[in-house]
Amino acid sequence: MVYQFDTSINRAGTGSLKWDKYKNTSVLPLWVADMDFVSAPEIVSALHERVSHGVFGYTIPYEGVIHQVLAYLQRIHGYSAKAEWLVWLPGLVPGLNVASAAFGSAGDAVMTATPVYPPFLTAPKNQDRELLTNALVWDGERYTFDWSAMESTVTKRTRMFILCNPHNPVGRVYTETELRQLADFCERHDLVLCSDEIHCDLILDTTAKHICTATLGENVAKRTVTLMAPSKTYNIPGLSCSFAVIEDAALRNAFKRAANGFITEVNALGYAGCEAAYQFGEPWRQALVDYLRSNCDYLYTYIREQIPQIKIRPMQATYLAWLDVSGLQLQEPAKFFEEHGVGLSDGAYFGDPRHLRLNFGCPRSMLQTALERMAKAVRGRGGEEVDSRIVDSR
Ligand SMILES: Cc1ncc(COP(=O)(O)O)c(C=O)c1O
């Protein structure tokens, strides 16, 4: 089947967070992590079918959706999970907050590695936890953990490490060796390992393989909270369907207690979309990953050849590129590109203001236009007008 990833979809009037930020302007939004693609046809028809039933009462996780999640974990990731290990969530941002609240008490600490998805930095503080961070280091080939810095940073009151694998925004897929070293670090310091794996089905590097942290062995599984969702992969974040997989009963109960009364379960359409994604979505996902890989290649080639002032290091996963714009010596890089018609995520929110994050989960034509605008902006360093005709053609 041929999917229409090249087709530009007009998202105006749909309450799109991504597009409405720049409503009535000609700025192309390449920021928040959703994609400008129609989801897999099987998901769309499953939703039609569910909607045509017409009754939308309180909905609990039913056998079909549970079965598809467990079958997917086994089939794609070799993870044999059980139904009772699943805790359904309306999003992984709530999951990060619940995990921060669940383990330890006010004044305890949570660790992570930066740059990272901003809620990793805000969730611990929201829950009165101290936030401890260490920057990832570039070892000449890849970003990895700064093990010795982590040993100096961890405190007796540290209760949890939040891992982002694949890592948003640097696009790393951590190896078994790195994950084992991290698990060992968590074991020695008695930390819960909260493993956010939301991007695990978007691996672009054909030599890399995602390893679910909890599959590393019993010792690791018993301190791991895995956070997952079909939302990034199948472009259904607006359906609010995510889940945690927590094998250890004590951890799971603590997590559920922290969520109790604050976190609703998933809605009827979210379950239907999730079930269809994992049951039928694999061919679409494969085609999507191919398309994203070619967008990624295009982006890297374009930047290398046309905007060499921007540095971009190899990435292995996600549709979120991490651009080092420090060479441009701009006061406010995100604002600069926004003023030249491209809306990017400001690296400051991820813990590194020298970078911008670019979302290439969009039709190639849009990516091309955005890159042309960026190149023009860098060449001109201000003053040039945006070509507003793009608004009509999107
Ligand atoms: C690492 C990571 N975790 C969680 C989320 C968001 O999850 P949700 O939309 O389910 O709250 C994102 C979104 O980009 C993400 O990159």
How would you describe this structure to a colleague?
This protein has 394 residues and is an alpha/beta fold. It has two domains: 17-39 and 282-393, Aspartate Aminotransferase, domain 1 (Alpha-Beta Complex), CATH 3.90.1150.10; 43-280, Type I PLP-dependent aspartate aminotransferase-like (Major domain) (Aspartate Aminotransferase, domain 2, 3-Layer(aba) Sandwich), CATH 3.40.640.10. The chain has 15 helices and 15 strands. It has helices at residues 17-20, 41-53, 63-77, 92-102, 119-126, 147-153, 176-188, 218-221, 231-234, 249-259, 268-280, 282-306, 333-339, 364-380, 390-393; strands at residues 28-29, 86-89, 109-114, 130-135, 137-138, 143-144, 158-164, 192-196, 224-228, 242-245, 311-312, 320-324, 342-343, 345-346, 355-359. A seven-stranded mixed β-sheet has the order 2-10-9-8-7-3-4, sandwiched between helices. It has a four-stranded antiparallel β-sheet with strand order 11-12-15-14, covered by helices on one side. α8 (218-221) links the parallel β8 and β9. α3 runs parallel beside α11 (268-280). Pyridoxal-5'-phosphate is lined by residues 33, 91-93, 117, 164, 168, 196, 198, 229, 231, 237, 242.
Report the mean per-residue pLDDT as an integer. 95
Distinct small molecules bound, one entry per kind: pyridoxal-5'-phosphate
Q: Could you state the order of secondary-structure elements as H and E? A: HEHHEHEHEEEHEHEHEHEHHHEEHEEEHH
Main sheet: which strands, in order across? Answer: 2-10-9-8-7-3-4
